[in-house]
Amino acid sequence: MAEEQTVLVFGATGNTGASIINGLVDSGQFKVIAAIRPAPKDKPEVILLKSRRVEIRLADLNAIDDTISEVFRGVDVVISAAEWKTLPAQKQLIDAANHAGVKRFIPNDWATPCVRGVRKLDDEKAVIHDYVKEVGIGYTFVDVGMWIQVAFAPAEKSQEKYPGQFDLWRTIIGKGNVKSAFTDIADIGVFVARIIADPRTLNQYVFCWGDEATKQEIFNIAEKFSGDKFEPIRMTIEEKEKIVEQSRAEGGVMEALHEYEYSYWVRGDNTIENAKKPEYGNALDARELYPDIKPHSLEDYARQFYRQAN
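Structure (tokenized):
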């Protein structure tokens, strides 16, 4: 029987991090540690982690100092899933992890495949990939496509979670026939637990996915399970390109949003086929590695989502 690995997770209270924690704990194969910012002991997220027998270690990625080395004590695998603003801090984490003898470092990717020079945020992640290889620490790069949770919007504008959500979802660029891959957030941790226990994935890029569909197909699924008819907002590719250029001039979150949308729905970067290409990283297909995993589909999620909405 393989020796139990100790896994340290940064960003354990976020959406991706929480899924990873759940997957690791549910597998029963790992000692799990969450690295979190100093917080009150009665904070709900901390209480939940402790209730799952997750060890807590304190680390603030916005203020890394020499004490960070203690966080890596006895750790075999480090997984970074903290907010995107902390991406540059990963270089210090990689150095500290390497010095501590960590065997595998999984940087903060958890997104969609792409080539360099298309998305600014993705290029920042590529810099971290280069640094991991330069340092020589063992690694696995993991992408998961788009979250299934963002594939659908509420059936009515009045139910928006943020301004503009409904109209953004209804927007179809071009013919709406470009495919994109999706993974349910809940399935990310299931995949990760298998990936880090698998020697085949060491020093490899792995792509996880649950479904693949065009924007028009997603529209059809939404209408099927909501019982409503949605009127799409049509946008030409040229119009989207102008929006991307404007957002780049402004920078910030909107720049990332529009660059990613252009990548998904115009360029068609986010597909299983592309992820496997050399220029995208030669990804291993997680569904081929672990055919027994049955991830949720877009229809699975839509069925539940619109049932709750109604």
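The two ends are 49 Å apart (CA to CA). The chain has a mean pLDDT of 94.
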